[in-house]
Design goal:
The protein is mainly alpha-helical. The protein is built from ten helices and no strands.
Length: about 240
């Protein structure tokens, strides 16, 4: 397959793509191109999202809510809260948010691929007792990332149209006033159709590389994803699980 065919076929016949990846020579473009696409989409999303007045207002309201909780808990005085809010306003201006969002999208796109490649590589060695090339695992993770890219585009369209910061194709849509500090809300947000799709495609890649049944690979990947999502939620980083 051509590179374009491999990227598009991730949405239809990922198993066939991974079978070709397994037997072919290492091709860096299999992870590099998806990483670049994800970077561009992520940076564009940050600029578009943080240009929305409704999103800017929601971010400010969240900051004010946190400060108010700190005052009520006696952890800071009203004067300290106002001072902290003034500082937060400086570092959360639309321009700053766009810049940090864009850089975060680029760095995160590459880090995500290499992290998932590491997981695939470790699972192959520890649980499946098969030596998997890390570079091949990176190719699988990069190609599977096309699912997440589509998910990011769908999320952006929902955010822009609904005017809500955490509007993702997940059960979070049933929550009227999403609270990023509410663990039950974050659990609903993690139940995202694209998360399950992505994990399923990764499991297909792991099964092909390791030569094991899909069900075995899917059990490992789904178990890891559930455990990792719960950890993120309960340590206060639940939005990363969405």
């Amino acid at each position: 397959m051509s590179l374009a065919a491999r990227l598009l076929n991730m949405f239809a016949i990922p198993g066939d793509v991974f079978e070709e990846v397994k037997v072919a020579r290492h091709t860096a473009t299999n992870w590099l191109v998806p990483a670049l696409i994800a970077s561009v989409v992520g940076a564009a999303s940050a600029f578009l999202m943080f240009s929305q007045p409704a999103i800017q207002q929601q971010l400010r309201e969240q900051q004010e809510r946190v400060m108010e909780q700190q005052v009520k808990a006696g952890k800071m005085t009203r004067a300290q809260a106002e001072q902290a809010q003034a500082i937060a306003d400086k570092f959360s201006s639309p321009t700053v948010l766009k810049i940090f969002g864009a850089f975060g999208a680029v760095g995160g796109s590459f880090a995500r691929i290499f992290w998932w490649a590491l997981i695939l590589w470790l699972f192959g060695r520890w649980f499946l007792h098969v030596r998997i090339s890390y570079l091949k695992a990176a190719e699988v993770a990069g190609l599977a990332g096309m699912i997440s890219i589509l998910g990011g585009i769908v999320s952006l369209l929902l955010i822009v149209n609904l005017g809500k910061l955490f509007s993702t194709p997940s059960l979070a849509l049933v929550v009227g006033d999403f609270d990023a500090k509410n663990k039950s809300h974050l659990l609903l947000g993690a139940v995202n159709v694209f998360n399950f799709w992505f994990i399923g495609v990764l499991a297909s890649g792991l099964a092909r590389l390791a030569g094991v049944p899909f069900a075995r690979a899917a059990f490992l990947m789904l178990g890891y994803w559930i455990a990792w999502s719960l950890i993120l939620i309960f340590i206060g980083l639940g939005t990363l699980a969405m």
